[in-house]
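Why predict the complex rather than its parts? Because the way molecules touch one another can change local conformation, and only a joint prediction can capture that. The input here totals 628 residues.
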Amino acid sequence: MLSVRAERTRLDGDKKMDVRDRDGLTEREFLERYSAGDYERPSVAADMVIFTVTDEEEDNYRKLPEKELRVLLIQRGGHPYLGRWALPGGFVRPTETTEQAAQRELSEETGVDNVYLEQLYTFSDIGRDPRTWVMSCSYMALIDAGKVQVRAGDDAANAAWFKVAYRLLGEGKELLKDGGYVRTQQHELRLVSEHGELTAIVERAQTVTETASCTSYRVVSNDGLAFDHAKIIAYAIERLRGKVNYTDIALHLMPKLFTLTELQQVYEVILDKELLKAAFRRKVADLVAETDHYTENVGHRPSRLYRRNLEELR
Amino acid sequence: MLSVRAERTRLDGDKKMDVRDRDGLTEREFLERYSAGDYERPSVAADMVIFTVTDEEEDNYRKLPEKELRVLLIQRGGHPYLGRWALPGGFVRPTETTEQAAQRELSEETGVDNVYLEQLYTFSDIGRDPRTWVMSCSYMALIDAGKVQVRAGDDAANAAWFKVAYRLLGEGKELLKDGGYVRTQQHELRLVSEHGELTAIVERAQTVTETASCTSYRVVSNDGLAFDHAKIIAYAIERLRGKVNYTDIALHLMPKLFTLTELQQVYEVILDKELLKAAFRRKVADLVAETDHYTENVGHRPSRLYRRNLEELR
DNA sequence: GAAATAGTGTCTCTGAGACAATATACT
DNA sequence: AGTATATTGTCTCAGAGACACTATTTC
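Output of the joint prediction:
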């Protein structure tokens, strides 16, 4: 056994022995002399895909309002992509983690905190930002529309909630020489708000060979979104759709009290698919808890109100 | 509609209109004048959790060899953490994406390419590297032990495959004032090779409140691993365990031809749990394809060999 | 009573868990 | 013949899909 193994890490609080390197330096001496060097370094931005669900008013007072999935975008007030819409985000500072940067951006833009936040993916395509080398560490946040109040940030000309639609346009499959294949799916991402409509087509390519498999996303066309943010939004929607089915993630989009029909509408708007009532209720039964409250004056039979069940997570 | 919306993105190849910003600059002029500025920037490393499965020889020639899950570690030849074991990895260069950096590291360390590679998570705790501000964009690779041949890299004193054991030690639950709670799980990560044994305890804390939920990992104790790599390995194992159940990910650990029993052993060693044969075979039936080959000279009934079924992925 | 939604019951089908029975090479 | 593993069959139970039926409030 090497003697250096006798050390403990600084994490458990013990002192390190003074192991010396090839230059005869202890770790302390090494670090004192260490200079960050001239390696080029990237900027790292934390970009946020902030989802919420809103009600679309109905003409018929008896009918329930339709739900809509919305994402917060900010119109760029400076170059590059001046005038385009972008995800809220900002550069990570040396005194904070990417999570903290995401939290900070979130509370700057929406004034909310204590919400569901999840790291999505780190995008690093070269040239994704025309200014300089920038990676995007992206996050997804889910917030209850009831407690939001959008504020325009510093360099943002404007901020708006865009209704999200993400639909499969077409699929293809191309065989490779070695028996593998590439499956492609084109999705249309359509974002609509009072400020207009943005559209992008994002292609998801799944390359499958004998030994490997990999999935990559590519923005095929893009009308109105800045940077590679169409790709990030597409990725976020796919993550959200995936997780809705086996976690209680969707409950973070609900207010404190809600009906099961409202919850079902949220699932339906996320999945872009109708669900059967009875099966849905069985499925979410463990995720929610009954209360003794009911809806009132709704023009039809009142509905029991539920809250998120904090116990019993898997 | 704002006139700037008439632009197309550079992605679809159209020219941009010359929109001018507050300073009267077009985007081209802005970019020509842009200087990266003096914001401090982090270094970004791509760190690899490279898994494989090996056979443990049996004394009884008739018995099947046991499978072991292994991870590749490199003994550090310089400060910091001189002598400790670390994940293979390196800094991302300005001319490559994090994926490409991961690929590069992988092929430098193991000589393989065209393997399963998946981005895991970007770790950015402040102080995680004592030298300077370094984030780790971590990747998981799965390779078939048959085609590996470990090479020691430049600044690596040594490289070795460590047998992985990751076990739940204990759980706790602490109630918060506002009705939420924190659930903690302590896992022991034990890594064993001919170079010795490394042990760490990683705590997974799940904070659940009325509105939010978040999970964080913390290294409680650590004997022999460098940086926060215990956390990264724990995260990788949890990802692997999760995905094994609903994808064909485990097949990337298999050679071209394998028996269903071998595949079951791989599932068992990943999940650290025994599975029932009949149910297992039904479950993987769609993921594999029969061949007409059989094992030979095994001291008992021969077994049909299968290969990965490339079609029919979900 | 009509409209609209709330909530429940039940039949079927599928898939997993559990266990058992049978098959087959190699020494 | 004995050993060790291979492979298949079947019973049961739980959960999801599909559909239908009943309940309740408001106007």
